[in-house]
Amino acid sequence: MSDQRDLSFRRARRDDLAAIIDLLANDPLGRQREVVLDPPDPAYVAAFEAIDSDPNQLLAVGALADGTVAGCLQITFIPGLSHRGQWRGQIESVRVAEAARGRGAGRRMLEWAIAACAERGCGIVQLTSDKTRGDAIRFYEQLGFVASHEGLKLKL
Question: Band of the pLDDT at 4, cuts 50, 70, 90?
Answer without folding.
Answer: low
